[in-house]
Amino acid sequence: MKEEVFNYQYRPGYGSGSMLIEFTGMFNVEALRETLFPILKGIESKPANIIETGEQRIIPFHGKYGKFDYSEDIWGFAFITAEDNQPVIERIECILSDNCRFNPTPADLTKHS
């Protein structure tokens, strides 16, 4: 069986100068988590308690490189964010860009300013 490849964009948040990682396109959220979380643990980060609302699930991670959040929602969006820790977002993006299961796609930066 062919392994799913996940597209993502490394881009600024809406109305923010902070960079984030947005997983784009059609994808299986469970398969994304099963592929992504071992990579995140590989940078010595561990998930904390899951925060769930009716529309969103946020999983905070803490570790050697500081805090960041993985979030997904009922509309099929998934993000990695860290408002106060941009170096960890850069580190994760570098790891994803070197992994054959993740495909960086260009972001339209005019939409995110």
UniProtKB/TrEMBL annotation:
This is Uncharacterized protein.
